[in-house]
Design a protein that fits this description.
Layout lengths: L2 H18 L4 H6 E7 L6 E2 L1 H17 L4 E10 L2 E11 L13 E13 L2 E9 L1 H7 L11
Parallel strand pairs: 1-6
Antiparallel strand pairs: 1-2, 3-4, 4-5, 5-6
Length: 146
Amino acid sequence: MTATSNALDLLTRLVKEGFEAGGTDVCDEVLADDFVEHQFGAEAQGEQAKEHVKAMIRDLQSMAPDVSFTIEDAVEDGDVAWARMTVHGTNTGPLFGRPSSGRPFTITVFDSVRVADGRVVEHWGVPDRFAVLVQTGALGGAPAPA
């Protein structure tokens, strides 16, 4: 399989097996040894970057174990894939150091990966963290999504 034919498959595996299902082993399977993470707050390279992604998976699962991702749009162009996803969950665990609110949330996430030699070498992620904070009540009395 070439990098061109599997960038979207690798991104989908990372999202579904990792962030949605909570499996951190997928990181060792799909992330290259020289992987670079560009997502705000998790920036790193190599083994440290892989560990940051695993920590993000664990944190998300702790915060919302019922989390689900729906890929709404996706594009693959050469060695790069982009996806826009809708993420649903319920805040039943700690959120950015705050206790759980029990409130549901629905956010948009944009992810992009670059692949080389059949593995992800770079990732950019843009989760709408502000929407999570508002919908879970962490920023005050904002309403939960309908």
